[in-house]
Amino acid sequence: xxxxxxxxxxxxxxxxxxxxxxxxxxxxxxxxxxxxxxxxxxxxxxxxxxxxxxxxxxxxxxxxxxxxxxxxxxxxxxxxxxxxxxxxxxxxxxxxxxxxxxxxxxxxxxxxxxxxxxxxxxxxxxxxxxxxxxxxxxxxxxxxxxxxxxxxxxxxxxxxxxxxxxxxxxxxxxxxxxxxxxxxxxxxxxxx
Length: 192
Hints:
Elements (H helix, E strand, L loop, with lengths): L1 E7 L2 E6 L11 E9 L2 H7 L16 E8 L11 E3 L10 H4 L13 H7 L10 E4 L6 H15 L11 E4 L3 H10 L7 E4 L1
Parallel strand pairs: 7-8
Antiparallel strand pairs: 1-2, 3-4, 3-6, 3-8, 4-5
């Protein structure tokens, strides 16, 4: 499949990468339908993350459809639509139990552990996403459910922030457009 990969400061390219596979009973594979470029991605683009390696897949604001789940997954099934949270969390520590997933005691102690846990495919700017820990999702559910309801009722329309929707092959140039705020760019959504 195709993925947006980091090759050095200011150098991102579309590459062929292996399809993700279930590696752990708590994994899920998601077919990505959309992914946004986030301000945090610019730290990677601009070389401010010293642990980046050539070929690392970028993107962490994806949504899509569950294609496969590990044997221990109970809260997802094939065909479910999901928004993948940007945090990597265990779902079991004190912070996770309090739905403070970004403060997880067990995840991201350093890049090597996160990379190993995700099978070197931690991102959402490609056709599928390999997810860690069964997608605890409490943080996403807490905020997304009320927002989704308001959106369905017409009380809010979050689409106004999306200024550019482009195919994945435009991602390298759109990273720079987003970074430089060219062409009135506020938010970019990429479609595989």
